[in-house]
Amino acid sequence: MRRVVGLILWLVLVAFLVWGALLIHPFGYPPSDMDDYMIENAQEETGNNNVVASVVFDYRGFDTLGEATILFTAVTGVLLLLRTLKRGEGDS
Amino acid sequence: MLSKIVRTVANQLIVFILIFGLYVIAHGHLTPGGGFQGGAVIVSGVVMLLVAFSSKELKKSLRERVLTILESTGALIFAALAFAGIGTAFFYNLLVDTPIFGRIPPTGPGPGDFWTGGVVPLMNFAVGLKVVAGLSAVVLAMALFSSGEEVEE
After folding, report:
1. Is A48 helix (H, G, I), strand (E, B) or coil?
2. Full residue range of the structural domain in which residue A42 is found
3. I need a surface site. Which of A21, A28, A81, B45 has the fewest CB within 10 A?
4. CB contacts, 8 Å: B81 with chain A
5. Which residue of A has its CA nearest to B78?
6. What are the boundaries of each domain within chain B?
7. Inter-chain contact B118–A46, Cβ cutoff 8 Å?
8. What's the domain count of chain A?
């Protein structure tokens, strides 16, 4: 029974992934005008030769702030967890 | 602690790894790479030291308290640079066309000029500091914990 359910779930997942892969835009046809705008204006507006850096830190800076927050939270969590475990062992 | 050969090679190699990581961070606005990638390169060097020497040995020179302070400093610099342009918009690049990192490169492909990019190079440095300190602290804490050493703060 579990094997049948697992097989059905696996088939659904595979169908979903194949469906998603078929919906991808054809190669060389960007889905929006935003990337053209960035490629043409990034050097003038932000002064970056590396357009990717200008997107990451300027046009989409808010996204990078989220990434930095994720890293900060992860580090805080790991240090907090390991430190608490050591202290708990020492006390008991 | 591994054998003397491994320790000597790691000692010589860490210099080049640090230089390459700093290069990737500093040239983030010109070539592929940036704060996150260069920081990961430097942390791979720290992991190499951790494998070659023991975590007990590395704990003498890398303290987790200092590392967490450095990480918070990087995050604060990043957020402060983001807020610096709030007169126009959040994350506005206010250093373009100023004496500091303000040159504008000619449009089109070119070798690039280091003194360009506005706040992006400064943000790269901040994020690089953050990634180096944060990931080093995590790796060091895990190594110390698994070897039964004390993890301070």
Report:
1. coil
2. 2-91
3. A28
4. none
5. A65
6. 4-146
7. yes
8. 1
